[in-house]
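Input for the complex:
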Amino acid sequence: MLTMRHQPRPSPRPHEAMQRKKAEADHREKKPKFCINDHIDILIEILKRLDGPSLGVASSVCRLWCTIARSDSIWEHLCFRHVSSPPPSSLRTIVVALGGYKQLYMVCVRPVLSRLLHSDLVRSRVWTRDEVQLSLSLFCVDYYERRLLGDTSPSSLMFLCKPVNV
Amino acid sequence: MSLYSSCTSAASSAGSSVSSTTKTSEIDCLLAGAGYRVRSSDLRHVAQRLERLDAAMVNSPAEVSQLASDVVHYNPSDIASWVDSLLSEFNQTASLPSDLPELPELVVGPVLNQTVLAEDAWTDHDAPQHQQLNNQFPVMTAMEEDSGIRLVHVLLTCAESVQRGDLAFAGSLIEDMQSLLARVNTSCGIGKVAGYFIDALSLRIFTPQGVGFGGGVGLDAAYENEVLYHHFYEACPYLKFAHFTANQAILEAFDGHDCVHVVDFNLMHGLQWPALIQALALRPGGPPALRLTGIGPPSPDGRDSLREVGLRLSELARSVNVLFSFRGVAASRLEDVKPWMLQVRPKEAVAVNSIMQLHRLLGSEPSRNSPMEMVLGWIRNLNPKIMTVIEQEANHNQPGFLDRFTEALYYYSTMFDSLEACTLQPEKALAEIYIQREICNVVCCEGSARVERHEPLAKWRVRLGQAGFRPLHLGSNAFKQASMLLTLFSAEGYCVEEKEGCLTLGWHSRPLIAASAWEALALPDANSPATAPGIFVNPHSNPPVNSL
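Predicted:
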């Protein structure tokens, strides 16, 4: 689980948010009950601030949460949350063409970030444009290998999935 | 270790109040109490040597008595040098041929693992890393290490007798080496590398000359070679480093151009180009129109592998909205390629990309028009914006066989060492076969069959300079990218260095692959005012100049 300490502020877990809302609702019986599912924009704002594994958990809460948690725009936000400068607008078409932001995050961004954080002494980390570019290039090579040689071919990104051994 | 360091700090504080030289404060005080003079910085070294001495004495007790009676030692209180001298006595009394060249640095590569392990054992017994290291590099016993050292010595003797022409003696040494191999761990380290070199030597000794090995003879070999190359790409970072560094240089050179043409001297699966296509797509100002000409060996059975690769690259380029066109040139040797096959258009910016291909041109007999000069000549006539040259950083083209053999032994041991860190199978096994083929070619082949004629960067600088090329410095972006790439690889031990604008990637301070970029110096004008007074057109500017 990506630790929360790398984010600028602590984020609420979805079920805690839900419980809090429910407690509030129970407390004030006269006021109309508040259901987060009626306020999708707030829900999206909350889910946007979660990390990858929490998003995975969130997607199994209910169908609405599942749809939102799987939408590529949330993963896009997750991929570039820590980038110092906003990515160029032309990036989206490219990432979508190569498999989408969720794929980019799971296959590339997450292992690259964790590997870089491993060897980095500075704790609060902001991604530089160079690191974004390198991840994208690796993602692109991986996509190409699958297209050319099939899914069983050796993958450029396999070295990222193996645990660090020294 | 902390006990000793606290002691030395106490000694140094005491030393400042006493009018003794600073040298006294470095001496370990605990051993000093027992009458031995050892510098604290040497403690680890001494402990290691004592361990080795102990093991050696246990293994060959017969020689201990000789050691006690015949050898003279001075300054027994100076433990460090005393132990060293004892150890060197031991090595000399082992049964080795007397006319050996003394090359201690050869065993640094594979034996390095063992000494690293010993150091860790000395400093921190509880380190979990120690356990991991144990699983990673099985501890070599002293006897194994001894056999390993002997193996190297016999390999060199064998190579020397091959150079002399004494094949009978060389053949008998092969048998000795096979028996030595049985006593060494052949799944890693010196045993594995020695095994490959012994095979290569026996091929050379026992097979009639004129048969090419590992040079990619035959059409099926081309397909096999592609597969092995791909696995070599995955198992270690050398090719990735090559591709990413070249791409960065090409990207920077293409800045501001709208029509660009890349000529790849060895297309293989085209793994280098997706990243360039994607980077061009993201270029501020939009992507240029990209043409790629890929050179590769002809494929058997009517399979057009070049075209297949081109199709996939076009697909990728289309999905990221880059105008792309591909052309394949099938040629079994680089010197067979003629510039008209590349169809370079006048207004486009050309980049020539050569990844471990130029050295293959060094193979033929010296004649008036050597292939290297010819190829470099037509490259220069193309007037490329940039030529990226990536070559192995080794001197495997020396005329003398023994020199070549020694250099290859050192180079490939280091490379195999770096490969040990890879845990992916079958990538690792196939990558080793790929390297083994190179070894075979360097050791077994001669004349035009020997294509792996690696030369170091310094020689390439001279050669390319004489051919009319100027070095371009690879910028800091390339260096940053290379360092980042290495951080992502799990083994620590790779190092990127920058030297006079070129980047090298190596293992533990031995560079193994070097990347450089070049541009063609301006060609002298064909029609100069001195020779042809009259109307002339300067090809580099648009309006024709009328000098009349």
